[in-house]
Amino acid sequence: MKNLKYILIPIIWLGLMSCNQHGKQKNDPLAETQGSIQTEPFNLASLKVGQNINDVLKSAGVTAKDAVRTDEVTLIGNERLAFSSNRLLHFNGIDLEGKNNKNTNKVLLHYGRVDQEIGPLANEKEDELGMYQIDIYTEQERNALTDNLNKTLQKPTFDTIRESFESEMKDDEIIQTSNKQRQEVAIWKSKDLIYYYCETKIDNKPEEYRCNLFVFKNKEWRDLLKGSGYPDLDKISL
C-alpha cells in the first residue's frame, strides 16, 4: 500500500484551479459572512450534504476568517474551508479538538464554487456543501470518534485491515521502504450518506499517524478519494 502522502501526486493537477480561502476578494460574499451566536452546541453529525455553506458557518458561530490553512488540494470546481476550532469539532457530543507534535485535528468543509465564465465542472452548485472531512491525529479523540460511529451507525457495510510497506518518492521513482504500514478502513451507509473511515499508522513514524472520516453522498466525491489513493472506494455503490 503506497503512502498517501505520495499517492496524491497523480492528482495534483486537480488543485490548479483551487483558490486559497485566505486570498478571497472583498466582494466575495462568503468572506464577509457574519457569524451568529450559537443557540445550541454545533454537531458535525447533523450536517446535511447540500446545505448552504453560509448557513453552516452561521450555525457554528464562525466566519471564513476563522479558517486555518491546509496543504490539501481541492477538487476542481469546489472550494474548502478548514477549522481547528472547538466550535466546530463536535460529533454527537464528542469534543474532537486536539493536536500532536506535528498536526492539529480539524474539519474541512468542501463546497461548490462555480466559475462564472466556465460554469459547473463537476456538477457542483454554488456554496453548496458537498462533503465534510474530519482529520484526527490524536489517539484519544480517534477512539471516541470510532466508538461513536460503531454505536450510532452499527456494523459497517465493509471493513478491513491492510498491512504493507510504506512507499516514498526518490529520484522521480516510487520505492518501497522497510517501514511497515497499517491501514484500517470502515464504510457505513446511513440513509443517503456514506461514511468512509481510513486510519493509517506507519512504523517508526508516529508523527504520520492519522485517521480521516469523509461524509458525502455523490459519486464525484467517491471518485476524488479513489484518485487520491484511498483504498476500497470500489466497495461503495452509489
Rounded to the nearest angstrom, the radius of gyration is 18 Å
Helix and strand content put the structural class at alpha+beta
- Beta-strand proportion: 25-35%
Overall average pLDDT: 81
Shape summary: globular
Q: Count the beta strands.
A: 9
Amino-to-carboxy terminus distance: 25 Å
Order of helices and strands: HHEEEEEHEEEEH
Quickly count the helices: 4
Uncertain stretches of 5 or more adjacent residues: 1-39
What composes the largest sheet?
A: 7 strands, antiparallel
Biggest sheet: strand arrangement: 1-4-5-9-8-7-6
The helicity comes to 10-25%
Question: What is the element layout, followed by pairings?
Answer:
Layout: H1 4-7, H2 53-60, E1 78-83, E2 90-91, E3 94-95, E4 106-112, E5 129-136, H3 139-152, E6 158-170, E7 173-190, E8 193-202, E9 210-216, H4 219-227
Antiparallel strand pairs: 1-4, 2-3, 4-5, 5-9, 6-7, 7-8, 8-9
